[in-house]
Every structure is written in C-alpha cells, then in structure tokens.
Amino acid sequence: MSWSEEVSDPYLRAAIEFGEREIPGFEIRFKRESKLMWLIDRYVRLFNPTFMTHYHTTFGSTMYLVHRESLKQGKRLVDTIMHEATHMHDRRKAGFWKYTVGYAMPQVLAIFALPLIAFPAFLIAMMPNRTTAWLSLVLGFLTSCVLWAWLCSPWMLLDLIPLLALAPWPSQWRTKWERRGYQMSVATEFWMDGKVISRTPTSIAPRFTGMDYFRMCPDEQWVKLILRLDQQDVESGKVLLDPWFRKAHDAIKSVSAE
C-alpha cells in the first residue's frame, strides 16, 4: 500500500513518493503495530526510554513511524521521511559491514560476551518497565558470572572484557551516517521554507552528544561546528553536488513549482 495516496499535504506526498521511487522495497509501517519494534524497545529503553513514542526508525527498507496519527503531521513529517530515506540509501550504497556494523560500533563488540549476557538479555525482554529491566540486567548478569565460573571455569570470566564495549564510547561511523541524515533534515526544511528555523545546530547537537544515540560524539563544540558547516553547504547549494541530495532537492522543489 502506498501511503502517499492517504495524505493531503503535497510535500509529505512528494517525500513518500520519493522514497518509493528511489529505495527498492520502501514502505511505511507503525511502531505500535510492530512486534519487531516492541522487541527492540525492550533493550533500547535502557538508555532511550522514548524510543517508541518520540522516534521514527528505519529497519532495512522499512520506515517505522510512531503511530498512524504521525501521517497527520503533514509538512512537519517531511524532513523525517527524507532523513530516514537517506539512511536507507546510504545503507544500500555502503553495504552491510560499512554501514550496519559500522553504525553499531563499538558497542556491537559486546556480542563476544554472549555466554554472559544471554540470560540477562532474556530477563530484560520480559520486564514490564525500565526500572525492572535495569534491575534484571544487574541481577541476571551477576547470576551468569557466578554460574559460568562455577560450572565451567573462572577463565570464562574473561568474557567480561568485551562488555567494556557497551560503555557509551564515541562512534565515528554512527556520527558520519547521522550527520548525513540530519543534513538532509536541514536541507529539506530549507528547500520547503527558504530558511532553517527548527533544524538548527543548537537543536540537533544534543542528539549527537546525549544518550539518544549513545553519546556517539560527545564533543559539543565540534558537533556544533560541523553542523554549522553542513547548514552553510545547504544554504549555498554546495550540497547539491551530491547526486542523492540533488534528487531529493528536485523532489521537494517539484511541489513548489506546482
């Protein structure tokens, strides 16, 4: 089903049609109707409790909006769809290792501690709220350590080392891909309104430095600097040298020309 037929805002319709045209398999679904998103939230809620209520998410070629009412946001949703379409495009172009694994680095390295985290991971998914999830994480982890050391060997506790990767370390690739996504958000607002009002460096920077993306780039001054440079590239038209941004620009501007 094409949701472009269900929306009245011309910019939103153009954004959805752009995604359908440029991204093979592009579709829109809704988090509250997705068991996959429910499962992912079981873990993401530990550091981002508003994942299901405030964040639209891309998984493969599917964009998950918070709920069906999100489509009623009209023009306010356009830059989000263009942002997520950019992630889909970059993932297809860069490939699994460079995009998907790179985006999850270095935290993904904790998978090498799977014997110790399997039990607490199961408990976390069963917990009804964030507080009990954290409690089950601590108790489940301690239980796993004791059992593995007792039943197997104390050397199994060396599996603790990969868990250091779960700390909020900076992530170069996640920063790179989100930087492109947010530059598309800025560009979309600029192309629609002729100026940047809400997607300013000051408003975007906390996403990079805070826990929304697990402190992927904690240097606030540097983040604001690169975001200002990205905005300047949008306003000067330099960003249009990128073929993907050129296509996006033409899609949004086609509405203005009508």
How would you sum up this structure, described in words?
The chain folds into two domains: 3-106 and 170-256, no CATH class; 108-166, no CATH class. The longest helix has 22 residues, at 130-151. The protein is elongated. The protein has 258 residues and is mainly α. The model has no long low-confidence stretch (mean pLDDT 89). Helix content is 58%, strand content 4%. The protein is built from eleven helices and three strands; from the N terminus they run αβααββαααααααα. The protein starts with 9 loop residues before the first helix and ends with a helix. A three-stranded mixed β-sheet has the order 1-3-2, with helices on one face.
Write the layout of secondary structure elements.
Blueprint: H1 10-22, E1 27-30, H2 35-44, H3 51-54, E2 57-59, E3 62-65, H4 78-94, H5 96-104, H6 114-126, H7 130-151, H8 172-193, H9 201-209, H10 220-236, H11 243-256
Parallel strand pairs: 1-3
Antiparallel strand pairs: 2-3
Helix pairs in contact: 1-4, 1-11, 4-5, 4-8, 5-8, 6-7, 8-10, 8-11, 9-10
